[in-house]
Write a sequence for this structure.
């Protein structure tokens, strides 16, 4: 099933996908058989008594549903350098870090040298590229301004490299053709400090703005941070373009600075600096993308799930430039491809590719809780309108692994479902789920901005069990009024925030189970904490210290990580209930 981009046209690729989707029932059986035959002698399958069986019935009978925690012992042995076929017979290349914001620690996902997995992943990437080319044909000589960061490469006790998946791609010599399509030199992607890397990406993009065809980031949050840096540092960027060199006080990474100066900046360009200054000095940031990069045809990033809250801000900066959505890629494996990338996030559907993994689905109730007491549903037997948690058996050693992602079935492409991404699974102990919190905050945010002219920059909550009864602790970071009282003076704001805390609870009471918890006195009124500006950036720093990269970072909505919770509690300026 390996398809090489140079050997097929986009039409042939999309026809191949259509064939796969029409043949999904058969291909799912074949995919599982292929995985189980190849991995028949791995310890994990043997210890559960599968004994080389490859049929679906035996597989479900002998192999239990699992979560990441069920693999921690096996993964630790691999990290310690053990070479036996614990999860896969293929050689271990490295470990991939997850973002680490929804759990206490980032996951370590083994990345085995699996030709079968590589074939499936390559096909998803090729389909994704073909779906973009279907909208925008490639331009000769054009470049992409891509805000990606490799992040740190760590080493386990057993000498196994651990990194983000983006780092592996950026460091892989086989991807040099892809990297050459970006305007920034490789050293910027491989740099050591995110703010300096982001600055250099912007500098390169502004210096050769006419060549920029697209602006990209893996997630909307990363792209928003880049636009905000442009807004705050445009004067220094203009100065560096005008002078033809970067101030060493701004970028201390010598190798990165040298590469940008030699490969992109070149000689002083005061006329380019003046043009950028004319646009940025207006203070009108709506539509700035089209004015600074006049040939940019689209802006691309993932804008679904927890990223949906940033969609309006990305649209603000992009103006009339087309926004393209991304694909559904979990830490464990690729799940779905976005075939209609021009749709806004609330309408985005992902088509599950039946050859990438063997998929099962756990029915989820209206509160976001999976029902593990009933049998899982196979890929082709899910029902339109219902919500499910995705379960995957992968070529790289995860078996019936619950991904923690909830989807709603919106229809079928052939015999494979097209799904809407809903949210992460509601964990035991959570009072609200991610989707409920985002929906409530969307309503409140609009009212709050209209009434106060302040902006809720970011938000999150946690289940506070230190109070009796329990309560929701809600954190807001705000963009203050320029001429208003400081948030450091809480007496000016306590009455206002108390009213919005009550409104938050009123909105939550629309969910029956929360209303009943309050009636039964099992849930206290919520507590609203206003945190210091930059607190959510500090959360990202905590995640990156644990191994996440800025490329893959997604701010948590439901906080379960005690380190992140402590950052926000320490940064609290105002607390009301």
């Amino acid at each position: 099933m390996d398809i090489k981009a140079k050997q097929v046209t986009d039409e042939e690729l999309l026809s191949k996908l259509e064939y796969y989707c029409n043949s999904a029932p058969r291909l799912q059986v074949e995919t599982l058989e292929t995985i189980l035959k190849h991995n028949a002698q791995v310890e994990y399958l043997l210890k559960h008594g599968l004994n080389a069986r490859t049929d679906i019935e035996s597989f479900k009978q002998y192999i239990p549903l699992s979560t990441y925690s069920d693999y921690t012992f096996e993964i630790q042995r691999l990290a310690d350098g053990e070479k036996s076929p614990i999860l896969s017979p293929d050689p271990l290349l490295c470990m991939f870090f997850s973002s680490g914001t929804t759990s206490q620690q980032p996951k370590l996902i083994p990345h085995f040298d699996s030709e079968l997995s590589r074939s499936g992943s390559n096909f998803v990437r090729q389909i994704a590229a073909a779906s973009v080319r279907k909208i925008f044909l490639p331009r000769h000589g054009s470049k992409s301004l891509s805000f990606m960061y490799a992040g740190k490469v760590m080493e386990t006790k057993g000498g196994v490299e651990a990194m983000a998946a983006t780092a592996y791609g950026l460091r892989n010599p086989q991807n040099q053709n892809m990297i050459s399509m970006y305007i920034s030199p490789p050293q910027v992607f491989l740099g050591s400090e995110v703010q300096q890397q982001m600055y250099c990406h912007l500098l390169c993009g502004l210096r050769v703005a006419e060549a920029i065809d697209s602006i990209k980031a893996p997630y909307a949050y990363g792209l928003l941070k880049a636009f905000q840096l442009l807004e705050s540092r445009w004067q220094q960027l203009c100065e560096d373009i005008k002078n033809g060199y970067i101030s060493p006080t701004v970028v201390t990474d010598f190798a990165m600075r040298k590469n940008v100066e030699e490969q992109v900046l070149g000689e002083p360009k005061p006329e380019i600096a003046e043009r950028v200054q004319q646009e940025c000095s207006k203070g009108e940031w709506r539509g700035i993308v089209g004015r600074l990069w006049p040939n940019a045809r689209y802006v691309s990033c993932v804008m679904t799930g927890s990223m949906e809250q940033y969609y309006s801000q990305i649209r603000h900066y992009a103006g009339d430039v087309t926004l393209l959505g991304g694909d559904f890629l979990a830490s464990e494996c690729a799940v779905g491809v976005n075939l209609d990338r021009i749709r806004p996030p609330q309408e985005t559907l992902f088509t599950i590719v039946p050859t990438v993994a063997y998929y099962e689905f756990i029915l989820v109730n209206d509160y976001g809780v999976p029902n593990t007491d009933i049998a899982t549903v196979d890929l082709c037997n899910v029902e339109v309108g219902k919500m499910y948690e995705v379960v995957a058996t992968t070529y790289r050693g995860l078996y019936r692994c619950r991904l923690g992602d909830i989807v709603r079935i919106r229809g079928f492409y052939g015999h494979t479902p097209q799904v809407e991404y809903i949210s992460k699974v509601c964990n035991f102990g959570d009072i609200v789920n991610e989707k409920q919190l985002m929906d409530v905050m969307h309503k409140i945010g609009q009212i709050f901005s209209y009434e106060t002219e302040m902006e809720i920059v970011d938000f999150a909550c946690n289940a506070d069990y230190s109070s009796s009864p329990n309560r929701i602790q809600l954190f807001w970071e705000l963009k203050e009024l320029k001429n208003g009282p400081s948030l450091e003076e809480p007496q000016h704001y306590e009455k206002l925030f108390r009213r919005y805390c009550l409104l938050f609870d009123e909105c939550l009471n629309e969910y029956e189970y929360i209303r009943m918890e309050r009636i039964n006195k099992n849930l206290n009124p919520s507590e609203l904490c206003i945190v210091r500006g930059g607190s959510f950036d500090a959360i990202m720093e905590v995640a990156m210290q644990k191994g996440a990269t800025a490329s893959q970072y997604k701010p948590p909505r439901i906080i379960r990580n005690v380190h992140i919770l402590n950052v926000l509690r320490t940064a609290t300026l105002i607390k009301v209930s």
